[in-house]
Write a structure and sequence with these properties.
It is a single chain. By secondary structure, the protein is an alpha+beta fold. It has three helices and five strands. The chain has helices at 27-41, 82-99, 124-151, and strands at 5-11, 45-55, 62-72, 103-106, 110-116. A five-stranded antiparallel beta sheet has the order 1-2-3-5-4, sandwiched between helices. Helix 1 runs parallel beside helix 3 (124-151).
Length: 153
């Protein structure tokens, strides 16, 4: 599918321009989101991030996904193979189909944010909102896991 374009992969917060006056594109969003979340992983861990731009199959809308993955602090993120990229895009399409357009999905090791590729959806204030949403989802996930463990005989 020619519209699937991997923009950036395997970067850390240290790779982002820190000067708010000269930040471009998603840098402000990424820095804000990572500043909030990396505090939760310190001192041993941090998030790496991958940006994927793709066309949602159902509506042909151009979407942007950021996949934040946990890793050991200071380690270089692992490159993503072409096969993994294709599988990731397929799973992103499935997530959008299930959740309608805007997605914040949280697991033990990843946070995935998917939205339309519109600048107004990727601002610093939206990063704070998305980080809060991810915290709520993580708390719900942990509570659910705790309840499941308590129900085991």
């Amino acid at each position: 599918m020619k519209s699937n374009i991997l923009l950036d992969t395997g970067f850390l917060v240290s790779d982002i321009n820190k000067n708010r006056q000269t930040q471009k594109g998603l840098e402000g969003y990424l820095q804000t989101f990572l500043n909030i979340w990396n505090r939760e992983l310190e001192p041993d861990g941090e998030f790496s991030w991958q940006i994927i731009r793709f066309q949602f199959k159902e509506t042909k809308s151009f979407m942007l996904a950021i996949v934040f993955s946990t890793q050991e602090y200071g380690e270089k993120p692992q490159p993503v193979s072409e096969l993994e990229q294709k599988q990731r895009i397929e799973s992103l399409n499935q997530l959008i189909k299930q959740k309608n357009d805007l997605v914040c999905s949280v697991s033990d090791t990843e946070i995935i944010i998917i939205k339309r590729n519109e600048q107004r959806l990727w601002t610093c204030s939206m990063a704070r909102k998305d980080a809060d949403e991810a915290v709520l989802q993580l708390l719900n996930l942990q509570e659910s896991q705790k309840n499941q463990e308590n129900q085991k005989p």
